Amino acid sequence: MLPAMPHDARERFLAEPRIGVLGVTDPRGGERAPLVVPVWYGYEPGGEIVIETGRETVKARLLRAAGRFSLCAQDERRPYRYVSVEGPITAIEDPIDPAVREALAQRYLDPQEARDYLVGTVDQLKDDVAFRMRPQRWRSADFAAFAADFEGADAG
Asked: How is the chain split among helix, strand and coil, in percent rounded to 5?
């Protein structure tokens, strides 16, 4: 069994600015593999996941059709950790609220980069939508305990 994170730790982990990997059912083609893409996302403990995308993108069409998605965030540095959530889409904000877009930019970029990004991509406000998802299922792992066991074995 994987060493799962306690509830509070997994929420704090997910709230940190990490690139998320979004997964959504993709019924196109014969193999029915999911669409899996990296995304910026917003999250506050106890709240909803928010992502933005273009209104007419494949991602947006698949999200609307599926009505739910998964998101995984990880720390690939040792000891490895990840949190994965899955749940229903609770709202589609069309058009996206400029404050949501600004918050996402500020989450991932330093202040000047965020300002430059928002000015340089202002036309996206006409085309972007936000999807909100309430995490329903959580999966997490924190391999710090294993790492401590290995370090202790090396010392002996």
From this structure: 35, 30, 30
Residue whose entry in the numeric block shows the structure tokens 């949501």: 100
pTM above threshold 0.85: yes
For residue 29, the SS3 value is: coil
Q: Tell the residue number behind the tokens 């593999």, with chain if given.
A: 33
| Cβ pair 45, 11 in contact under 8 A | yes
For 1-156, list the strands marked E by DSSP: 20-24, 35-39, 49-54, 68-75, 81-93, 128-133, 137-142
Over residues 11-68, the pLDDT tens digits come to 999 999 999 999 999 998 777 789 999 999 999 999 999 999 999 999 999 999 999 9
Tell me which H or E stretch contains 61.
Answer: helix 58-66
73 contacts 13 by C-beta, under 8 angstroms: yes
How many other C-beta atoms are found inside a 10 Å radius of the C-beta of residue 100? Answer: 17
Which residues touch 142 (CB under 8 Å, ≥6 apart)? 3, 4, 5, 9, 79, 81
Which pLDDT tens digit goes with each residue over 133-156?
999 999 999 988 665 555 554 554
